Amino acid sequence: MNLEGMRVMGIDPGLTRCGLSVVQAGRGRAILPVSVGVVRTPSDKDLTERLLRLSVAAKEWMEDYSPDVVAIERVFERGQVSTVMQTAHVVGVLVLAAAERDIPVYMYTPSEVKKAISGNGRADKKQMTTMITRILGLTEPPKPADAADALALAVCHCWRAPAIVRMDHTGLGLGAKTSGVRGQGKKR
Amino acid sequence: MNLEGMRVMGIDPGLTRCGLSVVQAGRGRAILPVSVGVVRTPSDKDLTERLLRLSVAAKEWMEDYSPDVVAIERVFERGQVSTVMQTAHVVGVLVLAAAERDIPVYMYTPSEVKKAISGNGRADKKQMTTMITRILGLTEPPKPADAADALALAVCHCWRAPAIVRMDHTGLGLGAKTSGVRGQGKKR
């Protein structure tokens, strides 16, 4: 299965800072960086206004870079309740933006991403940034952390996609180009 | 402050069943039912497809009934983790639909709604349905529970809105017609 040329948009969701990235799969495990950035929304604005801004930004990125697939971090009930809920609202808005463009969505947990990138599900931020910088051949480490995390999600999907596609050929129904939200190689 | 004629859309968010309602404030505490329904999305479809369907339905209701304000249930970290997260994704999509139309959004916790409707923050479903049927002068109890909950949210906002508007006049910045998400009479 050759996924060369596949464009993956990686998203590290957040209401205050949302990391967005696009990478393109090259030969074998090679991955080319296309774009990376962080969208911020002011904390003194209402949730409605902030979700609207994030939605507009995500849609612009999808229009500008035409990703074949979106990889987004799965939200867990960790940390402060209100922050987790806000992040989950953001994920809803981002998944909708992809759904409206018929772009399939895959979700990965932070430890799945860390394992895919560094071989260690508990890698720290510094290790992850070092690996991402090396993998993408960047001249300097991506900043802030949300940008590096968004790139890591995209790279994670590039490396896991061949296995997901192979599983699809076994008849598990994991087509790469349907509008699905999946993770851990299982259909959800 | 006269809120007569104000149209409130009440939403009981959920991925499998999402209750939608519209009521109109009458004289004093009188409230007229306008519409109520439940949007269902099939559990065998992907999250992307389901969020898209809910978004389309909510937008249709907003276009059809032109609510002045949306009242939606605040999601808590209760129950099964995955269900809570899915509901939070749905809330994000619904709040976005309102934001795109510049409709202000207010959030209320289940106990705030119960207290407003029945005077008891721990009222059970049967009590709530009885009260809603009586308040709106319905010929029969609204079904299913999600429909009754959606109506209860809308009624709750109608009765709390005058206090919120009064607070706005004290200079707390709680304008009724800005795109805000609020609850418990405090700006968030």
TrEMBL record, chains A, B:
<keyword id="KW-0540">Nuclease</keyword>
<feature type="binding site">
    <location>
        <position position="12"/>
    </location>
    <ligand>
        <name>Mg(2+) 1</name>
    </ligand>
</feature>
<dbReference type="InterPro" id="IPR020563">
    <property type="entry name" value="X-over_junc_endoDNase_Mg_BS"/>
</dbReference>
<dbReference type="GO" id="GO:0048476">
    <property type="term" value="C:Holliday junction resolvase complex"/>
</dbReference>
<dbReference type="GO" id="GO:0003677">
    <property type="term" value="F:DNA binding"/>
</dbReference>
<dbReference type="GO" id="GO:0008821">
    <property type="term" value="F:crossover junction DNA endonuclease activity"/>
</dbReference>
<keyword id="KW-0963">Cytoplasm</keyword>
<keyword id="KW-0234">DNA repair</keyword>
<keyword id="KW-0255">Endonuclease</keyword>
<dbReference type="GO" id="GO:0006310">
    <property type="term" value="P:DNA recombination"/>
</dbReference>
<keyword id="KW-0378">Hydrolase</keyword>
<feature type="active site">
    <location>
        <position position="12"/>
    </location>
</feature>
<comment type="function">
    <text>The RuvA-RuvB-RuvC complex processes Holliday junction (HJ) DNA during genetic recombination and DNA repair. Endonuclease that resolves HJ intermediates. Cleaves cruciform DNA by making single-stranded nicks across the HJ at symmetrical positions within the homologous arms, yielding a 5'-phosphate and a 3'-hydroxyl group; requires a central core of homology in the junction. The consensus cleavage sequence is 5'-(A/T)TT(C/G)-3'. Cleavage occurs on the 3'-side of the TT dinucleotide at the point of strand exchange.</text>
</comment>
<feature type="active site">
    <location>
        <position position="73"/>
    </location>
</feature>
<feature type="binding site">
    <location>
        <position position="146"/>
    </location>
    <ligand>
        <name>Mg(2+) 1</name>
    </ligand>
</feature>
<feature type="binding site">
    <location>
        <position position="73"/>
    </location>
    <ligand>
        <name>Mg(2+) 2</name>
    </ligand>
</feature>
<dbReference type="InterPro" id="IPR036397">
    <property type="entry name" value="RNaseH_sf"/>
</dbReference>
<keyword id="KW-0460">Magnesium</keyword>
<keyword id="KW-0479">Metal-binding</keyword>
<dbReference type="InterPro" id="IPR002176">
    <property type="entry name" value="X-over_junc_endoDNase_RuvC"/>
</dbReference>
<dbReference type="GO" id="GO:0006281">
    <property type="term" value="P:DNA repair"/>
</dbReference>
<dbReference type="InterPro" id="IPR012337">
    <property type="entry name" value="RNaseH-like_sf"/>
</dbReference>
<keyword id="KW-0238">DNA-binding</keyword>
<comment type="similarity">
    <text>Belongs to the RuvC family.</text>
</comment>
<keyword id="KW-0233">DNA recombination</keyword>
<keyword id="KW-0227">DNA damage</keyword>
<dbReference type="Pfam" id="PF02075">
    <property type="entry name" value="RuvC"/>
</dbReference>
<dbReference type="GO" id="GO:0005737">
    <property type="term" value="C:cytoplasm"/>
</dbReference>
<comment type="subunit">
    <text>Homodimer which binds Holliday junction (HJ) DNA. The HJ becomes 2-fold symmetrical on binding to RuvC with unstacked arms; it has a different conformation from HJ DNA in complex with RuvA. In the full resolvosome a probable DNA-RuvA(4)-RuvB(12)-RuvC(2) complex forms which resolves the HJ.</text>
</comment>
<dbReference type="GO" id="GO:0000287">
    <property type="term" value="F:magnesium ion binding"/>
</dbReference>
<feature type="active site">
    <location>
        <position position="146"/>
    </location>
</feature>
<protein>
    <recommendedName>
        <fullName>Crossover junction endodeoxyribonuclease RuvC</fullName>
        <ecNumber>3.1.21.10</ecNumber>
    </recommendedName>
</protein>
